[in-house]
Amino acid sequence: MLRWKYSRPLLGILILILAIGPMLSFGMLKEPGIQQTLAVAFLYGALALTYDMLFGFTGLLSFGHALFFASGAYVTAILIDSYKWPWYIAIPTSIATSAILAVLVGSASLRTKGITFAMVTLAFGEAGHVVISRNFGNLTNGENGLPINADRVPGIFIGVINTKYLFWLALAVLIFVYAAIWWVTQSSAGRVFSALRDNEVRTSVLGLNPNRYKLLSFVIAGTLASVIGSAMLLVSGNAAPRYATADTTIALLLMVILGGSGTRWGAALGGILYSIASTRLQDLNQGKALASLPKIISGPLSEPAFILGLLFIFIVMFAPGGLSGAYYRIRLRFLQRKGEKTASIPV
């Protein structure tokens, strides 16, 4: 994989700009609306990263990954609202609960392989959605979602004037998840994940237990997803039933393919861009920009899923490796041309 030598310094500069942007009196980052939109986008970028570790690095196609995202949000909200736990105890407890749930779901699902594994995870995810939407134990508030009790969370996360703190929280979560997944995928276990993705039979011949490493990847991804779910609860102010749906997991799959699977930064970028595009398309649909167009055109364009679907088709057709794949191809061509010019210079 080609790496530009200036990529890390530029990434550091970008993070610094994002960190200080809300404190400046000029620029887009001072607007609470932009801060809120980017905070949600950062969290979806982090969530796409966790899915990329399953799909891109380990080769596991799961349709139930949203279950752990939702469990992080809902368990935190239930412990704070219904049981009056302090937020700093509720969040770690929620993450630990989600980790145990990931162990149980992963252990059962990994008894199968391929499309059967995908269908089993889908069944677990749908079961979680049913529990949430049916207001199990009178704890989840059903389809209305579960708002968090604002009196039991830090005041810096409440109110429009404090949106910048939610922005910084989401940015910190994205950096933490990226660093954690980078560390895992660069470790010896991460190399086994990649080997399983490429050839599971060869990995087992080497004396390694494929299911053990698959379960490890599944649990790490699920646990990190619950961390993001707890952060999303603070950023959005409530836990929503849609967090647990298969649609959310399919959206994560689209994010990873859009950005490029198995590249980390590509998955994060795909998640961020997908989230921002979804938000802006919804705003376009609610506005009057499409009113002057014929119904045959404005009808499809008023559906964000239609436009995002077209975007996905174009990406698959013209950039099969996603945005990161397109970058690496352009970078390779540039280096090849540079090498040809260098070779043509007489010594």
Proportion of strand residues: under 5%
Order of helices and strands: HHHHHEHHHHEHHHHH
User: Would you tell me the structural class of the helices and strands?
Assistant: mainly alpha
List low-pLDDT spans. Answer: 342-347
- Summed up, the helix count is 14
Fraction of helical residues? over 70%
* Average residue pLDDT: 87
Q: What integer value in Å does the Rg equal? A: 21 Å
The first-to-last residue Cα distance is 30 Å
Q: So what's the overall shape? A: globular
Task: Specify the biggest β-sheet.
Answer: 2 strands, antiparallel
Topology summary:
Blueprint: H1 7-20, H2 32-57, H3 66-81, H4 87-109, H5 114-133, E1 146-147, H6 163-186, H7 188-198, H8 200-205, H9 210-236, E2 238-239, H10 246-259, H11 265-286, H12 295-301, H13 304-318, H14 322-343
Antiparallel strand pairs: 1-2
Helix pairs in contact: 2-6, 2-9, 2-10, 2-11, 3-4, 3-9, 4-5, 4-9, 6-7, 6-9, 7-9, 10-11, 10-14, 11-13, 11-14
What does this structure look like?
- It is a single chain.
- The chain has helices spanning 7-20, 32-57, 66-81, 87-109, 114-133, 163-186, 188-198, 200-205, 210-236, 246-259, 265-286, 295-301, 304-318, 322-343, and strands at residues 146-147, 238-239.
- It has 347 residues and is mainly α.
- Strands 1-2 form a two-stranded antiparallel sheet.
- The chain is globular.
